[in-house]
What we know:
This protein is of the alpha/beta class. The chain has two domains: 3-56 and 301-393, Aspartate Aminotransferase, domain 1; 60-299, Aspartate Aminotransferase, domain 2 (3-Layer(aba) Sandwich), CATH 3.40.640.10. Helices cover 38% and strands 18% of the residues. It has helices at 3-13, 58-68, 81-94, 106-121, 141-146, 150-153, 171-177, 203-214, 236-239, 265-268, 284-299, 303-323, 346-354, 377-393; strands at residues 25-29, 32-35, 40-43, 98-103, 128-132, 163-166, 182-187, 217-221, 245-248, 259-264, 327-333, 336-341, 357-358, 360-362, 366-369. A seven-stranded mixed beta sheet has the order 4-10-9-8-7-5-6, sandwiched between helices. Strands 1-2-3-13 form a four-stranded mixed beta sheet.
Amino acid sequence: xxxxxxxxxxxxxxxxxxxxxxxxxxxxxxxxxxxxxxxxxxxxxxxxxxxxxxxxxxxxxxxxxxxxxxxxxxxxxxxxxxxxxxxxxxxxxxxxxxxxxxxxxxxxxxxxxxxxxxxxxxxxxxxxxxxxxxxxxxxxxxxxxxxxxxxxxxxxxxxxxxxxxxxxxxxxxxxxxxxxxxxxxxxxxxxxxxxxxxxxxxxxxxxxxxxxxxxxxxxxxxxxxxxxxxxxxxxxxxxxxxxxxxxxxxxxxxxxxxxxxxxxxxxxxxxxxxxxxxxxxxxxxxxxxxxxxxxxxxxxxxxxxxxxxxxxxxxxxxxxxxxxxxxxxxxxxxxxxxxxxxxxxxxxxxxxxxxxxxxxxxxxxxxxxxxxxxxxxxxxxxxxxxxxxxxxxxxx
Length: 396
Ligand SMILES: Cc1ncc(COP(=O)(O)O)c(C=O)c1O
């Protein structure tokens, strides 16, 4: 079908709960993607953070092709080798004395974490969870309530009881919210959707101390930061702060749907049979794809590449900042890049699309790039050239 035909079919049959660009994408390879008319786009926001090792990573493609002919799905009443090996691979790379639960998405991973925090706290009357303003944890009711952004709660209340919110970066505010009923703090170590907000120095360490003092679980939502995005397997490893549990999804399986919760064993053991489940969670296809993702990141030495990409983008954007009054602040860690603008970012994203560059705008005025770890240098520079042209020529 042509893009126009696909769009017309969408309009008739698909619920319009997404704002979609008028393009139908059909093929991807690395950091490039093609539309139905054969037009090529450079993708600096591949798969909304899911394609951290690029589109159609060859090892993932080969592993899935092989697995799909052997066994697609069996329920979690059986043991399966790929799930066992994936849990081992993640736990070993986390350095935590932990165990895994698998599901299919970030929101589900956070639901599992919320349940675990309550299962752990409830016997002592603790069920409340502190999360942060501007956070994003997903769209199901638990994760949505945890999301500290009023706009996402509007019209769908009442939300789940037992969540309170502190401004991100404000340790005193978090401390003030702790009561005898608090069971956990849930936080993105770097806020993604909230605008690529980096934690102030000492903040995550302070939250760790607060949790230790009051017997709370510290849970890091690493759905966006995990799997090497920040140059370490998990963002917590950059800050030297050990959480009690982390949640994962997005890049976990190279673009195949997969989510996971890693929890320290003393907490993980609270998830006994009957407490939680996900029918498709940990299925063979997702787990084999995640194992191929881990293999790719290691064999292609992609973790150190994150810092190089970060530096190259930072250099380019700092040079642009000298020439463009639109750039207010540049926030970069690994391949999480946020450029705060003085204006709404939507026209910038639209203009880049016209020039065949895919980027994102979040939080109204923050240009967000989540490029692949294997983004080639020439593509990085070409993408920056386009953004620079668009920013310098923008007339408000
Ligand atoms: C930090 C974080 N947590 C959770 C989610 C929800 O993930 P999913 O859309 O896979 O449910 C997202 C999605 O953007 C996210 O960025």
